[in-house]
Amino acid sequence: MTAQNQTPMMEQYNEIKQQYKDAILFFRLGDFYEMFNEDALEASKVLEITLTSRNKNADNPTPMCGVPHHSANQYLKKLVSAGYKVAICEQLEDPKLTKGMVKRGVTRVVTPGTIVEDGAISQKENNFLAAIKVMNQAFYFTYIDISTGEIYLTETNTWEQLISEIQTIKPSELVLEKTFNPVKINEITSILNITISEHDDDQDSEYQWELNDPSAGEKEVLNLIFGYINFVQNQRLDYFKPVERYVIQDFLQMNYFAKNQLELTKSLRTQRKQGSLLWFIDKTKTAMGGRLLHQWIDKPLFDKHQLLERHDKVEQLMSHYFERMELMPRLRDVYDLERLIAKLSMNTANARDVDQLRFSLQQLPAINHLIQLINQESMTQNKLVFDELNEFDELLQIIDSVLVEDPPISITEGKLIKDHYNDQLDKYRDALQNGEQWLAELQQTERERTGLKTLKVGFNKVFGYYIELSRLQAQDLNDTRYHRKQTLTNSERYFTDELKEIETTILNAQEKSKQLEYELFANLRNEILKYISELQSLAKKIAELDVLCSFANISEAEGYVRAEITDNPYDYYLEESRHPVVEFLIGAASFVPNNLKITNTENILLLTGPNMSGKSTYMRQIAFAVILNQIGCFVPARVARLPLVDKIFTRIGSSDDISQGQSTFMVEMMETNFALRQATSRSLLLFDELGRGTATYDGIALAQGILYYIANVVKATTIFSTHYHELTSLQDSITGLKNIHVGSEEQNDELVFLHQIFDGPADKSYGIHVARLAGLPESLIQQSQTILTEMETNSKRLFNKDHLSEQISLFNENTIDIVQEKNSEIINQIKAVDIDQLTPVEALILLSQIKKDLK
C-alpha cells in the first residue's frame, strides 16, 4: 500500500513503528494486539498463529496477525524467550469518548531483561538485566532484577574475571554502549545465550539511586542501565532497593567451568536444575527464599564472622525441632513479597495480589511467636537471636477496611470494595440492589398482565435489559407497550418504557460504581506504596529465615554436621564424607562414605584407581563440603573441619568449544592455565585426568610439570586424579604429595569396585576390566590384554632405567633412550657430574665434549 493510500490507522501505526524499529510492535485495536508487515511475518512463525492480511483485494495486501489482549502474557513470554523485544502500544483514550482516531502510544518495551509478566519468569530465579562500562582500564558491572528491585554493583580490572562474573550471574540481557569493543561482544555472545542491547545516555538518569560515595565509573554504569530502563519501561522505579556494592574477592570464587563441572545449579547431562546440588538442598518454602539460596550458592561467603552467624542460626533452628516444624507452613503461606511490591509500584497489581499481601501479613504474628520461643532459650545461653518481624498492623487494618475477602482478579468490573467503606459507593449499590428488586417485581407484574408464566426479564451486555418471549407466545402478543428489540431463533425480545427507565437507572449506577471502585482500589495501592522500604526489609528477613530453615531441615534429615572452621588453609578433615546428590539418588545404604585429610605436609593428593570407581564423585563431594560450609549449611560427613577457601578450580570431565574452534585438550589446557595463574595457597584445585588429550608421554610430562608447579609455586590444596601410574613415584620427589587410590578387587576375573579411598597408589588402572564390564567382545578383550602386557614390558624398560622425574626434568625422553643405546658410558659420566659445583663456562665445555663424543 502506498503512503498516499494508507488509512489514518496505518499511518499512525507506521509512525509509531519508526520509533521502535528493533522491536515487534503490539498495536492495540479493541480487544486485540495487532501486528503488521514484517512484524506479522516474524511473530506468526514464532507464535504459531494464523497469518492473514489487510486489504486482501489490493495488489500488495498488508500481512497481519493478532493476539487477544486478555491472554497477551503467554505470547509476550514466547517472543521474549526467542530473543525478541516487544513494544506495547496502548490506546491512550477511551474510544467511547473519542471522535475520530484514538490516540495511541508505546507504554513500555518488553525485553528479556525487563519482562515481569506472571508466568514469564521463574519464581525461584532472578531475571537480571546487566550493564558494563569500561573506564580508566577498569570494568564496572551492574545488574538489576526489575521484578524484585535488587541492584548489584562491582568492578574488576581483568576481562577474565568480568566474563566469569557475567557467566555466574547469567543475565538474560546485557546493555552496552554503542562504542563497546565488537570483538569482546562476540566473545560474550559465544559463551552466553544473551540478548545484547545498545544504549547511549549522556544524561543523568531520572531515577536517583542510593549509593554512598560513588566513583565516576560507578555513576556511569548506573546511568547507562537506568537510562535504558527509563527508555524501555516508562514506569516508576521508586521501589528499587539501594545499590548493593560488593567486592568479588569477598566471596568464594568459582568460574563458570567450575560451577558447571560441579553441577551446582544444573545437571551437566540434562542442563536442568534436577540432579544439581541446588535441586537437592532447596527445601525453601517461599519464592524469595529460593532466589536467595541460588544467590548464596553462586557466591559463598569468605568472611568467617558472617559464616559463624549463619552456622549459629542453623544450629539453633535444628535444636528447636517443634518450633521449626510449625514455622515452615507459616513461611509457605507468605507470598512473593518482592515481586508483589514491584507489581504494586508499576500499577499492575490486581486485587488478588493485594489479597495475597494481606494473607502474607496475617502470618507474621504466628511467625514472630515462634521466633520468640527460639530466642528465649538462645538469650539465656548468650547465643545469637533472630530478628523479630515488623507486623504491619496499620497496613493490615487499611487493607482489611477496604478490600473484600476473596476479591475477583479484574479491577474494572467492581465487587472489590467492602460495603460501608464509601458512602457514595453504598448509594450506587443501593440503587443497583433496588434495581434488581424492581426487575423482579416487573417480571412478576408482566407475567400477570400477559398471562405468560414463562415470560422472562433478562440482561445482555450488548443489548441491555429485555423481556423475552417464545416465538409462539410472541405471535399472540397484542400489547402496544411492547417494542421489539431483538429476534432470535426460538424467541423474541422486547422492551417497555418502564423497563427502559429502570435500565437507565441501573446501568448508570453500575457504571459509576465500577469506576468508583477502581478509583478506591487505586488509592489503596498508593497507600500500600508508603510501606515499600519496610515491606522490602520484611521480604529480606523472611527469605533469610526460609533459607536457614531449609539448611536446618536438610542437615537434620541427612545427618549433616557443623564444620569447625580452621584458620590453617591446609587443615581439611572429613570423616565419612558423602556426595549429597549421589547418596540421595542411589540410597544411603548403597553409598560408600570416604575420609579426607589434608595437612601442612600433605596438601597434594594424587588419586589413582579404575574408571567408574568413583574418583570424580569423591572430588565433587569434597568441593560440595567446602561450598555447603561456606554458604552456611552443615556438611555431609560424620566429623568435619575445614578452612575458608578463597577459590575453587576444577577440571572434571572433557568438553570441546566448537564455537571457538578449540579441541578438548586446548580447552583443558586453557582452564588449567587460568587455574594455575589465579589460585592461591587458600584455593582448592580439583584436576581429573589432566593431559589425557594428547600423546601418552606428552600427557605424563605435562601432568608432572603441573604437579611440580602446584607444589613449588601455587601451593594450593590439590586433588589430582590420574591414570598415569608413572606419576605415583613423585611422592618421593614432590614435597607435600601423597598417593591415595580408590580400592577395587578382582574376583574370578571380574572387577569389583569398592568405592573406598585408601592410602598409597593403585596397582593398575583396570581399563580392560572396565571395557569387559561395558560388554565389549571377549576376543577383543583378550587381544587388548596381550597388547597391554607387551606395552607395559616396553614401558618398564624405559622407566626403570632412570627415574621419570630425572628424565623429564633434564632431557627429552627419546633423546635419553638414544643416548642409553649408543653410549651408556656417557650417561654414567653425566650422572657423576655434580651440577652444583659446575661454573657456567665449565658446563658449556662439558656439553660441547659430550656432543663430540655422541658424534
Can you tell me about this structure?
Helix content is 46%, strand content 18%. Strand 8 (138-145) and strand 9 form a beta hairpin. The protein has 855 residues and is an alpha/beta fold. Helix 10 (304-319) crosses helix 19, helix 11 (321-332) packs antiparallel against helix 14 (364-380) and helix 12 (337-345) runs antiparallel to helix 13 (351-362).
How would you describe this structure in keywords?
seven-stranded mixed β-sheet; alpha/beta; 855 residues; 29 helices
Reported for the largest beta sheet, the result is: 7 strands, mixed
* Count of alpha and pi helical runs: 29
Number of β-strand runs: 27
Low-confidence spans: pLDDT under 50, at least 5 residues?
654-662, 801-813
How far apart the termini lie comes to 89 Å
Which bin fits the share of residues in helices?
40-55%
Query: Beta-strand percentage?
Result: 15-25%
Mean pLDDT: 87
Characterize the overall form: elongated
Q: What would you call the structural class?
A: alpha/beta
Strand order of the largest sheet: 13-23-24-25-21-26-27
Taking all Cα atoms into account, the compactness measure Rg is 37 Å
